[in-house]
Design goal:
Blueprint lengths: L15 E5 L1 H9 L9 E5 L5 H15 L3 E5 L2 H5 L7 H17 L3 E5 L17 H13 L6 E3 L2 H4 L19 H15 L14 H13 L8 E3 L3 E3 L5 E2 L2 E2 L20 E7 L1 H4 L8 H11 L5 E7 L5 H10 L8 E6 L1 H9 L10 H12 L13 H19 L4 H25 L3 E5 L19 H24 L6 E5 L20 H24 L2 H13 L1
Parallel strand pairs: 1-2, 1-3, 3-4, 4-5, 10-11, 10-12, 12-13, 13-14
Antiparallel strand pairs: 6-7, 8-9
Helix pairs in contact: 2-4, 10-17, 11-15, 12-16, 13-14, 15-16
């Protein structure tokens, strides 16, 4: 298929996540239109084992709000000569993923591992017989987990079971014709009429709340929120985010920043939440795109560093700048915030101004390290008991702070405003140009596609709409009456996609590649303006301006 899927859903019951290894990765690259919108999300990562895929399954489902899953993995385990795969290992990890999708009520299709030509050089010495063994297990067992099996051998294999030569150039990877055949076979299954989401059984109100909590509890991913001094958390050094490793400091840079700025470098630091590290590879992120745009516009010395942190709120971003980033002699700092401060208290730690799930860390620490309670050392806390412990604390905190009350909503905005004022003072005191951006949101997009209209519940969207209106008014005041006008810029981009008719958003704040380019272009222009204003304030520039005035 070649037509972009932006306006009418291809899968009427909701977005489908295509999760897997190099096959799905190559498929996504070969046919971007199929995977360019929120209805079909390509999340294949070349070289990943089944276990690697299993580790990111829950967080991927949560990030994209997937109602369906197409799982295609195991091939890279078998064809990677550095691994020693076993049948039990591969099917055990697949079974774990199927238990997760069953718990999450995600309709799941598992594709057979694609055939290879045993005589191909890439198959030499590889345990290709495992392909048939794994496929036999999948054929016999996936239905036990409520999943469906898709057998690709009738489409892609010869009568002898080898990959058809017209579908591959090397006997291993699929060529354009092979991927087209794979896609046609897949869509024939995934787009049959009358497919419905998997609905959970009736539950009590508390059971519903507990299930929602458990749904989100499964995404406490230490790879993206690893404890870090002063800023609560950052990425885990060396861990992978969509196949891209975090640097030694836990940020998404090809190499870590060095404290001494190289001569001639124009150093720009971008601080934000998951929208800052979203993109699939470094060049595709907002900072990566901004660097490319700045250099193409003549600023060859531009070096843009990514200091985005998954789930980071503005207070954390401010602490990151104060505790670490100002020591790197930045020429400008770009900060993108707003949505995380608003939607996380609704779902996670309900206390205004607190980081993502700070209460969980506190509750666990108190449980195990209360020196006045010797039972803590004797408690063999099971996973189920852990969930209960934290869920009960969440209920207590929500009652304590008046969760979802008008006063609670105002307190959330108040803490955001306090953090923004700290940011203005930090900019002034250190003489660092800071551009603070209220990030884009689906709330201000007038032309919603059918998919975009279903990204969240009405009550949640109404709450965000009220809160975003307050942040927009505050940002306007900050821009007009900011106390440190010479170094600080407040910018409202919440409505940058207001008149865009194409499908744009995957959820409330995450948007697709064309939209990311639009935002990056605007931010690059703002950075150029901030750099130009900073140069105009240097002592040499002021002397030149004074001399020019005297000549007149």
């Amino acid at each position: 298929m070649s037509k972009p899927m932006q306006d009418k859903p291809l899968f009427p019951f909701g977005p489908i996540l295509f999760l897997g290894d190099s096959v799905t990765a190559g498929w996504t690259v070969r046919n971007p239109p199929l995977f360019s919108g929120p209805q079909a999300v390509g999340r294949g990562i070349a070289g990943q084992s089944v276990r690697d895929t299993a580790r990111r399954l829950r967080s991927e489902i949560a990030l994209y709000g997937a109602k369906g899953l197409h799982l295609l993995c195991g091939r890279d385990d078998i064809l990677d000569g550095a691994r020693t795969p076993t049948l039990d290992g591969i099917v055990g990890d697949i079974a774990a993923m199927l238990r997760d999708t069953s718990d999450l009520y995600v309709r799941t299709w598992v594709g057979s591992i694609l055939p290879v030509d045993p005589a191909a050089p890439g198959a030499a010495g590889r345990p290709v017989a495992l392909i048939g063994a794994v496929n036999a297990w999948l054929r016999d067992h996936v239905q036990e987990y409520g999943a469906h099996f898709i057998d690709y051998d009738p489409v892609l294999a010869t009568w002898a079971g080898a990959l058809r030569p017209d579908y591959s150039d090397d006997g291993i990877g699929l060529n354009t014709a092979g991927l087209a055949a794979l896609e046609a076979a897949t869509l024939a299954v995934l787009t049959v009429p009358d497919l419905e989401p998997i609905w959970p059984p009736p539950e009590s109100a508390d059971a519903v709340r507990r299930r929602k909590f458990l749904h989100h509890f499964g995404y406490l991913d230490s790879n993206t929120r690893y404890p870090s001094p002063f800023i609560q958390f950052a990425g885990k050094p060396g861990a992978s985010h969509y196949g891209v490793p975090f640097d030694a400091d836990g940020f998404l840079n090809a190499v870590p920043i060095v404290e001494r700025k190289p001569d001639g470098e124009t150093r720009i630091l971008v601080v934000g939440d998951s929208t800052t590290i979203d993109g699939g590879d470094i060049a595709n992120t907002l900072p990566g795109r901004i660097e490319r745009i700045l250099r193409a516009g003549g600023l060859d010395s531009a070096k843009v560093y990514n200091f985005g942190v998954m789930s980071s709120c503005l207070t954390q971003m401010t602490h990151l700048i104060w505790s670490r980033l100002v020591t790197y002699s930045p020429d400008a700092i770009l900060v993108l915030s707003g949505s995380t401060d608003l939607f996380q208290p609704w779902t996670y730690d309900p206390r205004p101004g607190h980081p993502y799930n700070a209460f969980i860390t506190q509750r666990l620490y108190d449980h195990f390290f209360d020196t006045h309670d010797p039972r803590a050392r004797e408690d063999g806390l099971s996973y189920e008991a852990l969930i209960t412990l934290i869920y009960e604390e969440l209920k207590r905190l929500r009652a304590e702070v008046g969760w979802q009350s008008p006063g609670w909503e105002d307190a959330i905005v108040h803490h955001y405003e306090l953090a923004a004022h700290r940011l203005t003072k930090l900019s002034h005191d250190h003489g660092v140009p800071i551009v603070s951006v209220l990030q884009p949101t689906i709330l201000r997009k007038r032309h919603l596609t059918e998919v975009e209209r279903g990204v969240a519940s009405g009550a949640f969207l109404a709450y965000l709409d009220r809160q975003y209106a307050k942040l927009e008014a505050f940002t306007a005041q900050l821009a007009a009456r900011r106390p440190y006008r010479r170094t600080f810029t407040a910018l409202d981009l919440s409505g940058i996609f207001r008149d865009r008719e194409e499908g744009t958003f995957y959820d409330i704040v995450h948007y697709d590649d064309p939209a990311r380019e639009i935002v990056a272009t605007r931010l690059a222009a703002e950075i150029r303006g901030a750099l130009d204003r900073a140069r105009a304030r240097t002592p040499l520039a002021r002397v030149r301006h004074l001399l020019a005035g005297r000549r007149r």
